[in-house]
């Protein structure tokens, strides 16, 4: 198993390189890069960004500064010196390949640089957003698994019964409802004040969080998370529930279960001592993908609607602004975590079923 893990870890390097390389050159081709974004802001809004580049050493006339501070330049456009200063500030005065190699060297040492538009170190920005994304991803994934696995087992045991039919209908209806639409319904009924004002509309904690006792802080934390998590999990039960049910049905009909019953073992012992371990293999296989999808992408619209500053919202804003350091670093970290979680998933396979030997393959 040790040799297999080493091989998988070594494969992480070329995989990361390929993904980052493809995205780097694709994004370079896309119109509206950071330089164009900054120029548009200068032409449309003026002072703050203008002072940044004037202070950086470019020579701009007093009339140009006055016009930029008033937010108006007429049809004259920006001076070439200002555009060159913007390119130098963002590092776009260097050739494409030089920027590419510099990015690879920095990412190899986990140096993700500074954000082009938000200010501050990229790692600091991501760390600041992590509590929201971890909260949403962890609790929603945990709730989905805690509900779906027992429900799937119960459906397998009662296959074809009224309970099976009605529970299937409910989880499919939940799956058909988009998370953002359900979030709107929850906000209207439980947070807007039109019907009830039981839950807060925004933020992960209250403004007086530091003044609360430990128990009150825990209650306040889950009070703010209740609606966002409910909106996220509503559509997550169907796939895992049906996967669990079908996996258990497949195992229940196998010969070793018939033999166990013939030996006089009770159904509970057969189910949880023999069937459960084999049926759970396919469930374990889907955990990394489920966690990564919820952790990095599934929460974006929920974060927007509930004003939660998470990684999903950060990635979306950075993509719109063409904030390349944030975009590439988010992609790099997400890919690295996904690859490592897949390795952990394989290790978990062998713990659940020692008969599986990846090294022999």
UniProtKB/TrEMBL annotation:
Superkingdom, natural source: Bacteria
GO terms classed as biological process: microcin transport; transmembrane transport
Residues annotated as domain ABC transmembrane type-1: 130-345
Protein's membrane topology: Multi-pass membrane protein
Subcellular location: Cell inner membrane; Cell membrane
Primary residence: membrane
GO cellular component terms given for this protein: plasma membrane
Transmembrane segments: 9-30, 136-157, 169-191, 221-244, 279-306, 326-352
Keyword annotations of the record: Cell inner membrane, Cell membrane, Membrane, Transmembrane, Transmembrane helix, Transport
Signal peptide region: none
Cited function: Probably part of a binding-protein-dependent transport system. Probably responsible for the translocation of the substrate across the membrane.
Family: Belongs to the binding-protein-dependent transport system permease family.
Protein name, entry field: Inner membrane ABC transporter permease protein YejB
């Amino acid at each position: 198993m040790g040799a297999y893990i080493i091989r998988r870890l070594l494969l992480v390097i070329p995989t990361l390189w390929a993904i980052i390389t493809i995205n780097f050159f694709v994004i370079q081709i896309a119109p509206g890069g950071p330089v164009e974004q900054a120029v548009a802001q200068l032409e449309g809004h003026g002072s703050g960004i203008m002072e940044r580049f004037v202070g950086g050493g470019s020579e701009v006339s007093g009339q140009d500064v006055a016009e930029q501070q008033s937010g108006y330049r007429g049809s004259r456009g920006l001076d070439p010196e200002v555009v060159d200063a913007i390119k130098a500030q963002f590092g776009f005065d260097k050739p494409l390949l030089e920027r590419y190699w510099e990015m690879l060297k920095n990412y190899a040492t986990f140096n993700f640089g500074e954000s082009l538009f938000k200010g501050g170190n990229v790692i600091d920005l991501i760390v600041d957003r992590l509590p929201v994304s971890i909260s949403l991803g962890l609790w929603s994934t945990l709730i989905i698994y805690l509900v779906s696995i027992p429900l799937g087992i119960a459906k397998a045991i009662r296959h074809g019964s009224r309970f099976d039919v009605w529970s299937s209908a409910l989880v499919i209806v939940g799956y058909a409802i988009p998370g953002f639409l359900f979030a709107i319904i929850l906000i209207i009924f439980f947070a807007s004040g039109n019907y009830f004002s039981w839950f807060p509309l925004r933020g992960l904690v209250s403004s007086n969080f530091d003044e609360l006792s430990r128990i009150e802080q825990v209650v306040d934390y889950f009070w703010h998370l209740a609606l966002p998590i409910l909106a996220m999990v509503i559509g997550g039960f169907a796939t895992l529930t049906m996967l669990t049910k079908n996996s258990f049905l497949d195992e229940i009909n196998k010969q070793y279960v018939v033999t166990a019953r013939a030996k006089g073992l009770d159904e509970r012992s057969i189910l949880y001592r023999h069937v459960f371990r084999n049926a759970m293999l396919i469930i374990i296989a889907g955990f990394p993908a489920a966690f990564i999808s919820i952790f990095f992408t599934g929460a974006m619209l929920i974060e927007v609607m509930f004003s939660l500053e998470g990684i999903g919202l950060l990635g979306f804003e950075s993509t719109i602004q063409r904030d390349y350091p944030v975009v590439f670093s988010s992609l790099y970290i997400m890919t690295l975590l996904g690859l490592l979680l897949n390795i952990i998933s394989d290790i978990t396979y062998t713990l659940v079923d020692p008969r599986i030997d990846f090294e022999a393959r």
